Structure formats: C-alpha cells, structure tokens
Amino acid sequence: MFGDMMGMMGKLKEAQEKVEATKKRLDTVYLQEESSDGLLSVSISANRVIKEIKLDESLLQDKEQLEDYLILTLNTAIEKATKVNETELAAVAKEGMPNIPGMDSLFK
C-alpha cells in the first residue's frame, strides 16, 4: 500500500513538472487576431500576454472608434488564447494523473 502511495506521489510530481513545462512552452505560442477590416491586429501568447498591437493610421483620427476596435479585437484574442491554454494544460494534467476512479470526469 505504501509503495502504491509513493508511486502515485511520483506520478503527481511528474504531472506537475509537465504542466509547468507546458506553461513555459505556451509563452512561445502566439496567436494573431485582426479586426474584420484589417485596421487593427493583435499578437498574444497562449498565456494571454499581449505581445504586439498594430493599427492603421486612420484609427488615430477617432478616439472612440479606436477604443471600440481595441476592446473587440483584444477580447477575441484573449478568448482564443484562453481556449488554447486550457486545452493544452488539461491534456497534460489528464495525461499525468494516476488512475483514480471518478477523477477522469474532472478533465472532460
């Protein structure tokens, strides 16, 4: 019984290490989001860190329009990055979990 517990603890530690490695890798995964007319583009990491914002000069003429573009485009980029982040981390966590009855439903 004690050996089983030690093996399970080892697997949990290994899973945690894989999750941390995946988090670091997601820092290097970039997603691009662009407004429907191409006047604004955003680059964001899968860990939801904005890396770059590019905008067309014409957006500088209207503050309210620029704010609207930023809100819409940033929210879409963050939503996409969150999906990638959650999918990747859930896959790694599920892979490393020991087979405990009832636990598999947590990662669906």
TrEMBL record:
Coiled-coil boundaries: 5-32
Keyword DNA-binding in annotation: yes
The entry's keywords: Coiled coil, Cytoplasm, DNA-binding
Gene3D superfamilies per UniProt: Nucleoid-associated protein YbaB-like domain
Principal location listed in the UniProt entry: cytoplasm
Record localization: Cytoplasm, Nucleoid
Keyword Cytoplasm annotated: yes
Family: Belongs to the YbaB/EbfC family.
Quaternary structure and partners: Homodimer.
Described function: Binds to DNA and alters its conformation. May be involved in regulation of gene expression, nucleoid organization and DNA protection.
The protein's name: Nucleoid-associated protein HZY62_14140
Organism annotation: Maribacter polysiphoniae
